[in-house]
Specification:
The structure is a single chain. The chain is an alpha+beta fold. The chain has two domains: 135 residues; 213 residues, Rossmann fold (3-Layer(aba) Sandwich), CATH 3.40.50.1110. Strands 2, 5, 6, 7, 11, 13 and 14 form a seven-stranded antiparallel beta sheet that branches. A hairpin with a 2-residue loop joins β22 and β23. The chain starts with 47 loop residues before the first strand and ends with a helix. The relative contact order is 0.17. The N terminus and C terminus are likely disordered.
Length: 432
């Protein structure tokens, strides 16, 4: 795969709001509208995100990893399957061009090894290599590969020359691999020099199905902090499996996780760039640009509260104004938006009574206003009935904010299924 063609060039170029009741008796009457055209290509092929992560960075200068003539083998879990696939590679936080000398995709067998016969060369505009300008992404050409739902994929990127890992998703909770020197994109197994706990450069995998995609926009709780590594036990992972198990054909919904640890709804932190841009700022890139985006879960805001002054925290009204912006922007693209209440956090290091009052006010507004299309009541799913300001001990990872594996599953189980029912094909009994 070192027969390098000329590098590809990159073109760098609410009134509908009504609260969607979640009771099972309404399920049979709910229909999912056609996919919005903005998320599809002009070729007539429908695409849906099967995996994704939100790019962040650059890291602090002392912790930037440099790759020199090495291959990254990045491991991700597909949510739904398809017969054709493409990827998105990001240099959006880079300050210099990023050269990918070769790339491939395959089904992963174990560790850094892939399944014989599934390895496919990725191209960009017909070329085997691509140079991505600073601040830009690149989407690969589509290729034939049967991807089963819930399959592990291995995306290999050969970084010819020297490349700095300035664009990455920091908290992967998944081991990926860096080779010794050389291009191993066409190798079933490769020599490993070290493992990675992040996803450098890779930000999306799409499959060719006319299915809707759910984007989970959030912070460290959506990112899965506190869950078991290499086990896909984040709440969006549990939700993808639940949709497929509970809804049959109607549950063929891509789930793309755009959670970023440390992320906020309203505020950027210039000295903490791995926390990502605020949700209002990254909405277009991380939601609207996701292929097939049709549903959005907005589960964000606790960091805005925790990082504001303990005795005089951010007003609930400021957060509500931010949520209303997400609602308006989602509605403009016919995306169903599901709000998520903020979790209990007494005992967490940033807990104060004043911050707790803001959290309660936000949750009260979410439940009473009906401005979201539906509501995922995370607080109700996680709280300890004996002490509702705390997470139930069985659902607590130990820091009194981030859930355990069981807590993440409880969040997924609390998701109302009614918004996802298409054409009345799922009966009320199946939702109960």
């Amino acid at each position: 795969m070192n027969n390098v063609s000329p590098p590809a060039s990159i073109d760098t170029g609410a009134s509908r709001r009504s609260f969607l009741a979640t009771g099972p008796l309404l399920a049979a009457s709910l229909a999912v509208p056609a996919l919005p055209a903005h998320a599809q290509s002009g070729s007539g092929v429908r695409w849906c995100g099967t995996w994704g992560a939100a790019p962040t960075g650059p890291p602090p200068s002392g912790s930037i990893q440099t790759y020199s003539n090495q291959t990254l083998r990045l491991i991700v879990r597909a949510s739904i399957g398809g017969s054709r696939v493409r990827i998105r590679v990001s240099n959006e936080m880079g300050s210099a061009p990023l050269r990918i000398g070769a790339a491939s995709i395959a089904l992963r067998s174990s560790g850094a090894a892939v399944t014989q016969g599934t390895l496919r060369e990725l191209r960009f505009g017909g070329a085997t290599s691509v140079t991505i300008p600073a601040r830009a992404p690149a989407i690969s050409d589509a290729l034939d590969l049967v991807v089963p739902a819930q399959a592990d994929l291995a995306i290999s990127l050969y970084l010819s020359g020297s490349a700095q890992g300035t664009t990455l998703h920091n908290v992967a909770l998944q081991s990926s691999y860096v080779s010794t020197g050389g291009d191993y994109t066409s190798a079933v197994s490769m020599p490993v020099s070290r493992t990675l706990s992040s996803w450098p450069f890779l930000s999306a995998v799409d499959v060719n199905v006319a299915a809707p995609c759910l984007v989970a926009l959030g912070d460290s709780i959506t990112d899965g902090q506190g869950s078991t590594g290499n086990a896909n036990r984040r709440w969006p992972d549990y939700l993808a499996r639940r949709l497929q198990a509970s809804l049959g054909a109607a549950g063929r919904i891509g789930v793309v996780n755009r959670g970023i640890s440390g992320n906020s709804l309203l505020t950027d932190y210039p000295n903490a760039l791995l926390a990502g841009y605020a949700a209002l700022e990254r909405f277009d890139r991380d939601v609207l640009a996701t292929s097939g985006a049709r549903f959005l879960v907005a589960f964000i805001g606790i960091n805005d509260i925790c990082y504001s002054p303990g005795s005089n925290p951010i007003p609930a009204g400021d957060l509500i104004a931010g949520y209303r912006q997400l609602i308006s922007r989602a509605g403009a693209r016919d995306i169903t938006i599901i709000g998520a209440t903020l979790p209990p956090f007494e005992g967490f290091v940033y807990y104060t009574a004043a911050r707790e009052r803001v959290r309660r006010a936000v949750n009260d507004w979410m439940r009473a206003s009906g401005e979201f299309d539906a509501l995922l009541d995370v607080e109700a799913a996680l709280r300890d009935p004996a002490r509702p300001t705390r997470v139930l001990p069985a659902y607590d990872s130990g820091d009194h904010l981030h859930p355990s594996d069981a807590g993440y599953q409880a969040i997924a189980n609390a998701m109302p299924l009614a918004p996802f029912i298409a054409g009345g094909n799922v009966t009320a009994e199946r939702l109960s």
